[in-house]
Amino acid sequence: MITALTYILCAFALVEAAPVSKQHLHHAHKRDNTCAFPNDDGMVKLGQNGGWAQDGDCKAGDYCQYACKPGYLMGQWNPQVTSYTYPGSTEGGLFCNDNGELEKPITDNDYCYEGKGTGSVSNLASQDVAFCQTVLPGNEAMLIPTEVSASGSEELAVPGTDYWASTAAHYYINAPGVSTEDGCQWGSTANPIGNWAPYVAGMNMDDSGNTFAKIGWNPVYFEDSSPFKNEKPNFGIRLKCNDPSKCNGNTCEINPSTYGLNAVSVSQQADSDGAAWCMVTATDSSAITIEVFDL
User: Fold this and answer.
1) Could you say which residues form the signal peptide (predicted)?
2) How many structural domains compose the chain?
3) What is the pTM of this model?
4) Is residue 70 part of a domain?
């Protein structure tokens, strides 16, 4: 299980660096030495920073990150960067050249492509829930929104080993009633949302068709400076294999009313940051659902 956890948190691509081949996107235009958001091919234009999923505008000489619709992954990054090392880990998205034109670093890839389709959210709560995916490669802020309506469901983006550096998708899970506009951005100690949300999750698939899913308490929630560290959230989450016969570690739940703060349904508290977590693995390309429920 430690091997699987390591894989889902920080896996590295053992491939040679590919040559950079950039395709010009002529529909982009120059504006004060910046590149405009192209707004097509499944991309989601965010409400700040010109639509980009990053801090600030898309400036000449930079890689510019963007969000994709639920279940889809960003298909562009610097192909010469094949491991999770800084500053290469920030070079995701399209390249803005000196002429204010966007270029596709990986010409054969779409802007957005569908994940493995083995992860989803089922919202059993009475209000909408905001799942906020971190931008990687990028600044790793929780800017990519997936809004799950009350009593509804949505697909989550599950990367395979073909995704950048074979990394997993990571999500911050806000309480029911928090919108993606409020929850999918850097937060503060004013409210337990954004990077202060109580729960986090991660998902990915290996080449053997095993989908790894982890849910856990957010370590930031229990920092000394956190005013929420003694407050029980009013909702819980659990992992549920769609096919129990293809599931390893079938019991995995966070329920503060039952287990208390910083505790889960099983004894898997191995992170050095002290945050409790649990994990399940679905084999043979079967799927895992994250259920959200009121307390």
Assistant:
1) 1-17
2) 1
3) 0.90
4) no
List per-residue pLDDT tens for the chain, 295 residues long.
333 433 444 432 322 333 344 555 544 444 568 999 997 779 999 998 999 999 999 999 999 999 999 999 999 999 999 999 999 999 999 999 999 999 999 999 999 999 999 999 999 999 999 999 999 999 999 999 999 999 999 999 999 999 999 999 999 999 999 999 999 999 999 999 999 999 999 999 999 999 999 999 999 999 999 999 999 999 999 999 999 999 998 789 999 999 999 999 987 655 668 899 999 999 999 999 999 999 9
Per DSSP (E only), the strands in 116-167 are 119-123, 129-133, 144-148, 153-155
Compute the C-alpha angle 131/290/287, nearest 5°: 120
> What is the extent of the structural domain holding 132?
115-294
Considering the domain boundaries, does residue 119 fall inside one? yes
Residue 128's Cβ-side half-sphere holds a number of Cα atoms within 13 Å equal to 14
Q: CATH number, domain at 146?
A: 2.60.110.10
Q: Is residue 93 part of a domain?
A: no
How far is Cα 28 from Cα 100, in angstroms, rounded to an integer? Answer: 8
Count how many Cα atoms sit within 13 Å of the Cα of residue 268 in the half-sphere of its side chain. Answer: 20
Residue 125 lies in a domain: yes
